Amino acid sequence: MQSNEKNTFDFEAFVLFEQILKKHAENPSLRVLLFTSAQTQFFSNGIEPTLMYGKSESDVRKSVEQLLRTAQTYFHFPVPTIAVVNGHCMAAGAVFALFSDYRYMVDKGARIGFSEAIVGLNFPSIPTIVLQDLVGVKVARDLLYTGKQIKGPEAKEIGLVDELYTAENLFAESMKFAETLAKLTNNSSRGMKTALREPYRNRMESLFPTDADLFTKVILSQDGQEGFHSLIEKRRPKFVT
């Protein structure tokens, strides 16, 4: 990813990502996908706040539905995926890491978290289910209600990430593991992924309308708009006179 200094997702980024995934999904020689950032400070800081602030209901709904579709396309990508979390990983960025099969994270200088509650938003039920299955109901509850942004060692302790590596070794170790996965046959690579992901498909499709409706409603609420406005204000340069 290389959209801006914090790798936030705007509408075009979601569309492009989905197009890339669909383009490569049927490549019979593909065995594994690595998902990382060209930045060193941020893996992804989530949704670009200007995408949701001050927009019409139809524009917000369009963006929300595209976000949910792209995330589900990534979740069901037919070969193993590895999120190489080389910087801060928040909100929607953390959802894409969560939706990966494996998560390798830098050991220092980065945090991961689902910070929606901090800015007055809700959290869709689809990634909530995946998060609960990964770290347990109680841990997922605490992460979501508090919006806590945790460092690598704690993320590994609770099972949110698989391995930690230094910034110098992170990509090399990720590639080493990817090369191991690449030795799988096409049938094994895709068959195992199907077995792991297919049980979620019907639930995801059935919950999509509810998630889209509620997330759109919350974003358009006063709390949601104030939350996105606060994120925009934090990015503005401060001048001393």
Summarize this entry quickly.
This protein has 241 residues and is α/β, with parallel strands linked by helices. The protein has 9 helices and 8 strands. It has a single domain (11-233), classed as Alpha-Beta Complex (2-enoyl-CoA Hydratase, Chain A, domain 1), CATH 3.90.226.
N-end to C-end Cα span: 37 Å
Mean pLDDT: 95
Q: How many domains make up the 3D coordinates?
A: 1
- The protein's oligomeric status is single chain
What's the total number of strands?
A: 8
Family: Belongs to the enoyl-CoA hydratase/isomerase family.
InterPro entries: ClpP/crotonase-like_dom_sf, Enoyl-CoA_hyd/isom_CS, Enoyl-CoA_hydra/iso
Pfam families: ECH_1 (PF00378)
GO molecular function: isomerase activity
Description:
The chain has 241 residues and is an alpha/beta fold. The chain has a single domain (11-233), classed as 2-enoyl-CoA Hydratase, Chain A, domain 1, CATH 3.90.226. 54% of the residues lie in helices and 12% in strands. The chain contains nine helices and eight strands. It has helices spanning 11-25, 57-75, 92-98, 125-135, 137-146, 152-157, 170-181, 186-220, 222-235, and strands spanning 33-36, 42-44, 81-85, 88-90, 102-106, 111-113, 149-151, 163-165. The strands form two sheets. The protein has a four-stranded parallel beta sheet with strand order 1-3-5-8, sandwiched between helices. Strands 2-4-6-7 form a four-stranded mixed beta sheet. The N and C termini lie far apart (37 Å). The model has no long low-confidence stretch (mean pLDDT 95).
